[in-house]
Amino acid sequence: MTEPVKPTPTLSRRVLRNIALRIGIVALVLTAVSYYYSYWRFQEEALVNLGKYIAARSQLESEPFLQAEINTKRLRDEFVRRMALYGDTDPAPRFHQLFNQERDGVWRVRLELDDFEHQATVALLPNVKLTPEFMREVLVGFDLTSQYGPAHRSRYYDTFIDLNVSDGSVIFLPDLNYARNGSVADFAAELPTEIGATPARNPERKTFWTGIYFDKQAIQWMVSVVTPIDYLGRFVGGAGQDVLLDELIERTNSISIPGTHNFIITRDGDLVAHPGRMNQIRDAGGAYRVTDMDDAELRGLYESVLKATPTRPFVESLDGSAWLGVAPIKGANWLFVSVYPKRMLQEKAALAASMVLLLGLIALVLELAVMAWTLRHDVAQPLSRLKGAILALAAGKRSDNLDTHRDDELGELARTFDGMATTIELHRHKLEELVEQRTEELAVRNMELEAANLRLIQLNEEKNELLTIAAHDLKNPVASIQGMTKLIVGKLGEWSSERIEDRLLGIVKLSERMQRILGNLLDINALEAGLYQLQPERLSLDVLCPELVASWETRLAEKQQYCIYTPNGLEVTADRQAMWQVLDNLISNASKYAPHQTTIRLEAVAIGERVQVRVSDQGPGIATHEMERLFRKFSRLSAVPTGGEHTTGLGLSIVKRLAEAMDGKVGCESVLGHGATFYVDLPIAGDKVPG
Fold this sequence. Notes:
The structure is a single chain. The protein has helices at about 10-85, 90-100, 130-150, 180, 185-190, 190-195, 245-255, 280-285, 295-305, 340-395, 410-420, 420-490, 495-530, 540-550, 555, 575-595, 650-660; strands at about 100, 105-110, 120-125, 160-165, 170, 210, 215, 220-230, 235-245, 260-265, 270-275, 315, 320-330, 335-340, 535-540, 560-565, 570-575, 600-605, 610-615, 665-670, 675-685. It is of the alpha+beta class. Among the domains are: about 85-245, PAS domain (Beta-Lactamase); about 535-685, Heat Shock Protein 90 (2-Layer Sandwich), CATH 3.30.565. Strands 1, 2, 3, 4, 5, 6, 7, 8 and 9 form a nine-stranded antiparallel sheet that branches. Helix 1 (about 10-85) runs antiparallel to helix 3, helix 1 (about 10-85) runs antiparallel to helix 10 and helix 16 (about 575-595) packs antiparallel against helix 17. The two termini are about 80 Å apart.
């Protein structure tokens, strides 16, 4: 007997190599997943913190601007109130007591009264007209700026009132004597703060802000806010304050989330503050518009910033390298922007992923060592015993040296091998069950064939009935036509033309009857064979129904009947020819069973997204037990036509099939002895008509 081949030691190495490869791939995948998960988690956390940061900065930086607008509006309101209190009081004594015209022609506060550190200074152009009204305006402006200026000094550079553009300037500025340091040319220059308050430039009379500028006397960046002043419908000037920007710029450039930087920009693209562009802003006189400069980086950031909204304050830069948090600086209507480089998120995510990868490699080495020992003791040796059992079975012997006591896959394999005979027996029983199942399926098929055979018998009976109806219903009209024709030929020379015409009309009616019978037979055949082609369209009932009623006037007149249609403005989605045939059959059915001198009503009502077209008669009605046979083929009920008309029992069957082909349904409402109402339910016409 051949001795069992001992397992080669390469099995363990091959398994370990494959396991190491798979674990390594899993570790790399987990590292990648960890990287992306960490990246998105860090990004979400960063955006939340960035949102809180820009909201806080927006509130902080907006407050001085909003307060400056409030201050200038209060100054304007108080100016108007005090002008009203002055009334017609002569201002000249006090005016000349406070002011005098100096050598350069400028009117200023008298030198002995000039205390610019504690009260306002005044500069009036030499050619100004000192009307009483203007002198009152100067005095009110002097009093207001002297009182309000010191109160606002802690937060604002100055408080001023410009009168009649550049005719007069009243300002509280304790840092220097503005009125005495300036020349006539300085005071005569029309500044943006003065021109912007005029009705021509500011017809809406709104508070406005100037652009930023670097004041050479104050040696500081600032911006001005001005509220126009009108009194009794007349332009007076503007009340304003200069807001220093150095602290705002310093905070913007130096206080930021670590790794990020901030900048402030106007909605028009003028750069206000930027940690790396302050020299360029100063060289441009505060008018550093990024769209006009050769600065692709800032221009790209500006274009991205404009996409931000109050509900979506975070946008990506055009190159995708950073998140931009955008918040408005209210009042000045500027945008505070914090640039958060995605590189920071990537570095954090890479660090987290690296730790995962390192720990994974350490775990891999330990797992391989444990697996090597496990493979040798728990896999290689049981497989060797199983191989020996297989060889013994091939030799016709049975081995008991199997690990059937184990609870793992190898134990299951040993038990499976040991139960092979039982499994074969189970398979035999399974085959018997399959044979029984197939036998039952054949029985079901035989029953289905029997049902199909019964259906064929039924269809054959219907065919025979159809041929019988066709032969019977066509035989009488043909015989009548033949008889009338022979009679007319024999009496052609004896009868009058009126009598011959009457007989010919009788032949026409008989031919129409034959045509209707053949039409019904052809229609029911086409519908059952699926050859009846419909073309749905938007169909106006107010167009179709009057035409149909008009076509029935002559036939209804024979029984002195009337068909009334009530216009409704409704439209349905249906095939015109099929709809005509449906309603024509229903009117024919109503006329056939309704008494003479009665009215047939044709109407339609909208029910939700459907339209119900109703045909009502005053006939004998339909018994309850006959309702279920109403729309069957060849169905004939107990009611008898009131004019001796002929019926094939196909009309209502055709109506049902045509209505269902147009996504509709038919029905009947009747009380025996009180007439009947047949209705067709169709979809109301929508925006589109299905093809």
